[in-house]
Amino acid sequence: MIILEYFLLAGIIMCAAAAPLCKRLLSMVIVYMAFSLLMAVLWSLLQSPDLAITEAAVGAGVTSILFFLTLKKIHALKGTRDE
What we know:
This protein has one domain. The protein is built from three helices and no strands. By secondary structure, the protein is mainly α.
């Protein structure tokens, strides 16, 4: 179990380091979603189901949807610009 926690921690650190280095905004949002998902699994392994559910719902769910809507609004996603 501890080995799995270390792998999750390594993934979280990699996501945290990769997010500011992303050149495209869509890549950054996807890395953020992965970070939130890994955090939710880690909270679950640490026996904090309330934090895991909150992280999954807010971090990977609602915030990511808001990021995607913002990217669409500022025309950062391909194919969304009215021509």
